[in-house]
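A quick aside before the break. I want you to see a complete sequence-to-structure record at least once, exactly as it would be stored in a machine-readable document. Don't worry about memorizing anything.
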Amino acid sequence: MKKKLVYGAILAFCCVPCLVGLATAGDKGPAEITLQSTIDPAKTPKPAQFPHGAHQARLECKTCHHGKGPDGKRLSFAEGQKIEKCETCHNSQSGLPETVNTFKGAAHALCQDCHKKNKPELAKCGVCHKK
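That is the input. The structure line, written in tokens, reads:
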């Protein structure tokens, strides 16, 4: 019985920091995200590895995230707003302008354009789309 108590205490001591980390990570999203379309897959789908944690450490959520109003127009991100998958709206059935009517198009418009302005060396395909 004592062994079970000791092992239980050790296990709890080791797991609590991890659980606390997961709880706080849930507030801001995962540290790493694999981006890949499921609605409009590219002819040669190559998932993109997105370092979300590194971006959220430097940028406000509203830099990338936004919502959609009842009229279908883009709404600025509001703190606490539910974040939907990009392709919920950015898909071929959306009726959006061609440059952003797919997840790939929207991601390239947002991510590549930002990197071209701020860090051109990160705007190359292989940076996000690993082989």
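Two observations worth writing down. The first helix runs from residue 2 to 28. Helices lie at 2-28, 52-58, 103-118, 125-128. We'll return to this after the break.
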